[in-house]
UniProtKB/TrEMBL annotation:
PANTHER family: FERROCHELATASE, FERROCHELATASE, MITOCHONDRIAL. Its main location: cytoplasm. This is Ferrochelatase. Its EC number is 4.98.1.1. The lineage of its organism: Bacteria, Pseudomonadati, Pseudomonadota, Gammaproteobacteria, Oceanospirillales. It is found in: Cytoplasm. Fe(2+) binds at H190, E293. Belongs to the ferrochelatase family. InterPro entries: Ferrochelatase (IPR001015), Ferrochelatase_C (IPR033644), Ferrochelatase_N (IPR033659). It comes from Endozoicomonas elysicola. GO terms for cellular component: cytoplasm. The gene is hemH.
Length: 340
């Protein structure tokens, strides 16, 4: 296909670190029914009474700890990646965020105006499927295109959690850290409520029925976030040659009282400290760009907890960001999209 336009979509950040901007961002983000999947009135009440009065101040402080002169690291890293990709291909590429700016509708409109455009390739910047990440991006793109009368065919790039090229790029980008002397490697994935995985299980009877469901073959794994992050972990340790007793998996960024995927990253970090690990590495493969959740939650918060628990050093392995191996892979995928 010659005339393809590409829309890369990441999550989004507040416009600034002011409490008001963070409140507006959290309101848009958490009112998404794919993120807090409760009936509208309950979601609205929960946000207005319990989340929005206090969380924005706490989150704004966290954002201040990692904000750069150019703005939010998530946006800056996504923009750098987009710029490098543009310099390597003639395919028109737009970057948008699911929440906030750059705006998805404006990006779609620019792509639709490309001369002789035949297809829009929607590329959610997430390796794993989750209703709160990939699904909401797809649904929003379809909704906006319908509202805007854009009739160009939409193609969605599949998730790539176990793709050889992705694992190779991840291992390659992590190499300088893996070559150091470390005691333990922690894979910290963004958590999701268990309910989200069960809701998206197409069989209605597979996901989270028992502890080993993710190791049994099932079509449910097409939308099973837990299965997909385990696959990334297994493929990574195999390629990087990390022995089984030298790595662990945890889930971070838990919010609210519902049951989320276990174990919690902070508990894993304390446990490995108790077991004698002194120098640990943390990699966060559910994010392709460093952001609040990697730089602040892990790079600052989890590091403090590890030191308190007796550890010496916690090093955060950077996300793929604009690593050459990642840019080359994205170029290949936007020119020859995966078809499975
Ligand atoms: C119900 C709450 C949340 C779900 C489910 C969730 C899933 C999810 N999120 C990401 C990626 C990112 N999340 C980020 C920040 C963030 N996430 C939540 C809540 C849920 N996420 C909140 C409230 C926040 C905001 C910050 C805070 O107040 O703690 C970010 C970083 C944004 C940034 O500006 O840097 C990313 C990226 C994925 C991939 C995912 C499901 C797998
Ligand atoms: Fe999140
Ligand atoms: Fe599973």
């Amino acid at each position: 296909m010659e005339n393809r336009g590409v829309l890369l979509v990441n999550l989004g950040s507040p416009d600034s670190t002011s409490i008001e901007d963070v409140r507006q961002y959290l309101d848009e983000f958490l009112m998404d029914k794919h993120v807090i999947d409760l009936p509208w009135l309950i979601r609205r009440t929960l946000l207005s009474l319990f989340i929005l009065p206090s969380r924005p101040a706490k989150s704004a402080e966290a954002y201040r700890a990692i904000w750069t002169e150019k703005g939010s690291p998530l946006i800056v890293n996504s923009e750098n990646c987009t710029e490098k990709l543009r310099s390597k291909t003639n395919t028109p590429i737009e970057l948008a965020m699911r929440y906030g700016k750059p705006d998805m509708a404006e990006a779609l409109s620019r792509l639709a105006k490309q001369p002789d455009i035949e297809e829009i390739l929607l590329f959610p910047l997430y390796p794993h499927y989750a209703m709160s990440s990939v699904k909401t991006v797809i649904e929003q793109a379809k909704k906006l295109m319908q509202e805007m009368g854009i009739t160009v065919p939409l193609r969605v790039h599949p998730v790539f959690y176990d793709h050889d090229g992705y694992i190779e790029a991840l291992v390659e980008s992590a190499k300088p850290w893996l070559e150091k002397d470390f005691d333990h490697l922690i894979f910290s994935y963004h958590g999701v409520p268990e309910r989200h995985i069960i809701k998206d299980d197409p069989t209605g009877s597979h996901c989270l029925k028992d502890k080993s469901c993710c190791q049994k073959t099932s079509i449910a794994h097409k939308t099973c976030y837990r299965h997909q992050v385990y696959q990334t972990t297994e493929a990574f340790v195999e390629k990087a040659g990390i022995p089984i007793d030298k790595y662990s998996v945890g889930f971070q960024s838990r919010l609210g009282k519902a049951k989320w995927l276990e174990p919690n990253t902070l508990d894993v970090i304390k446990q490995v400290a108790d077991q004698g690990a002194r120098r640990i590495l943390v990699i966060c493969p559910s994010f392709v760009s460093d952001c609040l959740e990697t730089l602040e939650e892990i790079g600052i918060g989890a590091k403090e907890e590890f030191i308190k628990a007796g550890g010496e050093s916690l090093e955060l392995i950077p996300c793929l960001n604009d690593h050459p191996a990642w840019i080359n892979l994205l170029k290949q995928w936007i020119e020859h999209p995966l078809t499975y």
